[in-house]
Amino acid sequence: xxxxxxxxxxxxxxxxxxxxxxxxxxxxxxxxxxxxxxxxxxxxxxxxxxxxxxxxxxxxxxxxxxxxxxxxxx
Length: 74
Known about the structure:
The chain is α+β, with helices and mostly antiparallel strands. It is 23% helix and 39% strand. A hairpin with a 2-residue loop joins strand 2 (27-31) and strand 3 (34-42).
């Protein structure tokens, strides 16, 4: 069984609020030409669910990265 971890999901473009509502529990941050979603303590099932939602919504995912448990900037 996989332990829960923190992840970042980098999506091309600025994802609007209506689409972000599909990612309840994730924090969004806008970077140049991308939206970065941050999820904390995600297990394997949650990770696969997020990836499936990205696909279903037709968003272009360019990176998924496991990150350390450091706090996000305010």
